[in-house]
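Why does residue order matter? Because the sequence determines the fold. Keep that principle in mind as you read this record.
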Amino acid sequence: MPQHITVVDSDPSWPRKYAAERDRIAPALGDNLLAVWHIGSTAVSGLAAKPVIDIMAAVRSLEAADAAAERFAALGYEYLGEFGIPGRRYLRRGGDERTHQVHIFAAGDTANISRHLAFRDYLRAHADVREEYAALKRSLAREFPYDIDAYCDGKAAFVQEHEARALAAYDAGWIRLYLAASAARREREISPLISCGGVAAALLTEAGNVYTGVSIDTACSQGMCAERAAVAAMLTAGESRAVKIAAVGPGGRPVPPCGACRELLMQLGHGAQDTEILLSSDPLQTQKLSALLPAWWQTA
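Structure:
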């Protein structure tokens, strides 16, 4: 039976349903999973939508994601491969009356990842566009209640226009850094006295290069923070101007630099006070180093 297309009012339970399903599917990807987001119309408060929860995941390896197909099947998902989008792995639950969809991309595919996040955030920020989009979807659902291809074709021009506007205003550099730090973060024990990788950092230089580093924890306080390790990698390569830096801890949570790392970053000079720090990845929140280290001693 063809999928029945229904568009309903925004439901405040959708974020909770996303969170519950995120926690249910994350073990299927295990250590391969780097980040996960609620995307699509159900991720936009106030937007009418088909009641389908869309989830996007970034992974270290698509091949390892393919190997998890049976684990997803046990959770009720069909694993449908690329399904029309190169580089994607698409899964759905509920058959023709689907309730959930998962879109998996490799962490390096920032174009596709940014496209989904930019459009979602654009809709969140523009009420007039949300209203226009909701009206269009309701009209198409009435006209094509059992023709998903016609429904999607009817939305295509609108989505393409506003997706282009969203991407023009979107800073994809933060996703690149967040995923680079997430990929570098691997907790491991080096010896009974040293562990590393509990936190990882990635910084973007003025020249456009990304350097990563991981935390080193020792029994006698001789280790270093991930930010300092990333700075060391940058300096070793002959660069010294960091324009953005993101550090990621357990659970993918961004963590701001400690006082010692703030001091080190500031002492790099060359406009270091304008270095941007990631405070939150979703929603995106950043802060300049000067705001995290006010009344710095050299300018006092």
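Residues 52 and 211 are 38 Å apart (CA to CA).
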